[in-house]
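Hi everyone,

Forwarding the result from last night's run.
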Amino acid sequence: MNKAKPARLLCFLALATSALCFASPAQAALAQPWTYVMVWSPQYCNEHPGEKEQPQCADISYFTPRALVAENVYALGSCDPVRGLTESQVARLLPMVGNRREIIARWRKEGGCVDVTFDQYAMKLDYVSRRVSVPEAYQQMEERQYVDIDEVRQQFLAANPGLPALGIAMHCVNNELSEVSICLNSNLTFRECAMIQDDCSGRTMIRGARLGRFKKR
């Protein structure tokens, strides 16, 4: 029996394993899951009257993209310090997010957990914001409504074929819908959520976008 071939095979396997173990951050990022967060703007703007000049609140908006959150943000609880965004970088995200303060604050808090460049991050957020469909019922809503939160979930599932029932999480403040999170694989396809879950239950209020939607100071 030729012992050279098994020896060469073992060396090859060892090198392959070593290459995986010492993959660069960019290569490791290819396997990083994400969570796409959308805020319900009428609720957000009502809770933040000081931000009525932000595009998200100055214009009538409904579900607005907020961020792509790397899965390790939830796992680690905090991220490494990160350099702040330049004006041009903020301007790139502003048409999607509509809130300069939130762009800067979220990146400062979570950017250290993102293992891609800012340009890659911006492209991913843009892609997901176009890929995830908002149900027609929530593309315009002037008056507040009271709905069963499971009904909202079912409408999102119907609007996004392939989204699993456990791939979406609803978030509420005082039993009022505030955010919806969609869980994504590293390649931005839908997946079940592993680190987050609903904090809404039963009948929930969804605020409409009528004038005077801001709290008085």
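The first strand starts at residue 34 and ends at 40.

Cheers,
N.
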